[in-house]
Amino acid sequence: MRKPRDFDGELKALQDKARELKIRKVQQLGELVIATGADALSADELAGGLIVLAETKDAGKREAWAKRGAAFFQSRARRSAPSTDRDTNGTPAQPSGAQPTPSRNGAA
Q1: Is the dihedral of CA 41, 45, 29, 84 positive or negative?
Q2: 11 within 8 A of 80, measured Cβ to Cβ
């Protein structure tokens, strides 16, 4: 006879994993705010800027912000990666899980 599945145990494990992922996401967002220098903004300014970014439907602006974000991550990788870890064509790989982030300069 087969062993019955422990649905409660599996559900708890999934909930724990979801909680850990949420905590990691919040931590990474905080690190991104600090790395971009946006921690110098007040919470109201930061929230307002993010709302404008989220509401923007202009594909051109969003693409420009994405390019600027990608350049930000590439420049950070270049500064922190030893020369042996760099790409041979001079373009370092984007860190895993890193996504381009819009800059606040194009937000208005």
Answers
A1: negative
A2: no
Dihedral of alpha carbons 58, 39, 97, 75, sign: positive
Q: What is the pLDDT of residue 37?
A: 94
> Do you know the residue count of the chain?
108
Residue 33 — very low, low, confident or very high, per pLDDT cuts 50/70/90? very high
Closest CA to 68 of 27, 28, 107: 107
Instruction: Indicate if the pLDDT at residue 89 is higher than 80.
Output: no
Average pLDDT for 82-91: 48
Is there a contact between 92 and 61 (Cβ–Cβ < 8 Å)? Answer: no
The token pair that represents 6 in the structure block: 């422990």
The pair of structure tokens assigned to 71 is 């350049």
- Cα 33 from Cα 80, distance rounded (Å): 18
